[in-house]
Every structure is written in C-alpha cells, then in structure tokens.
Amino acid sequence: MTRDARSERLLLADDLDRLGPDAPTLCAGWQTRDLAAHVVIRDSRPDLFVAEHLPLVRDRAKREMQRIADSDYEHLVSRVRAGAPSWNPMSWQAVDERANLLEFYVHHEDVRRAQPDWAPRQLNRALEEHLWSALRPFARIAFRRSPTGIVLVADGLGRHAARLPDARGTVVVRGPVQELVLYAFGRTEVARVDLTGDADDIAALQATRRGV
User: Fold this and answer.
1) For residue range 35-82, what is the model confidence (pLDDT) as tens digits?
2) Same domain, 15 and 100
3) How many domains are there within the chain?
4) Residue 146 neighbours by CB distance under 10 Å
5) Is residue 119 part of a domain?
6) InterPro entries in the record, alphabetically (predicted)?
7) 186 with 107: CB under 8 angstroms?
C-alpha cells in the first residue's frame, strides 16, 4: 500500500520548519503556527476538532487552539511530523491513506502556494492516480452546494460527474488532478483549472462555497 498521505504530512512538516511560525497560508487568518495547531488538534484532540463546529463550545475550542498555536513551535512541528497517536485509528496505515491524503495534500499546498515564489509541483503518476481515486467520492460532498451540474475532467485520468444538473446547466472543470483537488477544497485563487459552460452558471459556481 502506498504511503502518500504520510509523505504529504512529512513534506508539510518540512515546509513548516523551513518557513517558521509566522509565514502566511491560504487558510484565512492563519499563519503557519495556526495551521500546525489545526493538524495537531485533528490528530490528537478530536473533542476540540468537533467543538470547532458546535456554536455552544466553539469559543472554548478557539481559545485552546490559540494556546496550542502559541506553544513552542519546534515542538508543535515535531507533533505534526509524528502523526496521530496510536489510540487514534488515523494512525493505522489504511485509515491514514483514506482519511488524510486529500487533507495533507491541500494543507501542504496551503503553505507552499501562499509564498510569493511558489510553482506547481510535478507529481508522479502513482500520486496523481491516488489523488483522483480519493477526489471522486469526495467531490459529491465538496460540490453539494453547487447550483450547477459539475463534471470534473482530470488530464490523462478521466472524467467524473460530481453533481447532476438541477435548475442550471453543467460546468466542466478541467485541469491536472492536483488542481482539481484544490478547486474542490475552495482554493479558487490558486487552483489552475479551466471552466467551461454558460457564463451565468460559471459565475454562480464561483460564488458558491466549496469543500467540507
């Protein structure tokens, strides 16, 4: 079994180390220290990860995330690199690949593409195929709010109907699979994709929130 999720985690940790705690990311309001804290919480504090989405306890979760983000940065990055603790099923290889590949690919790019000198990576074919396999089932969630039909076309890999047309027509989103992943996660400003379809449909899609 591949370990692409683990590889993306380690590459992310390397960039966090290289850039330091105060570098920008594509996540609104987050510097590298905040993104590192998010990963650590996701790995080791599922209670806080869930609480971030619950209005009654959201403020407490934000305070705790800030406390973790303000902790020793070197130790924080070492926790990102180490991964989930053994009690967390995401530490198991098969679960890690299924649950974390898209997560860590996107967060790695959140750090890389927020820097002024970024350029797209050349991915190996195996990773491209793995990303495509992971993206297809996720796309139904990512585009669930879309007012249009969505067809994803990954260069050299195939096409996938992510959402059937409703009141509007269909927008075709085409590009390298890594760019489709970023687009599906809402990184519109950096995702290098081509959109074809009715101009009003494209505008409606662009204005709609994507991702989880």
Assistant:
1) 999 999 889 887 776 766 677 677 887 888 889 999 999 999 999 999
2) yes
3) 2
4) 21
5) no
6) CHP03085, DinB/YfiT-like, Maleyloyr_isom
7) no
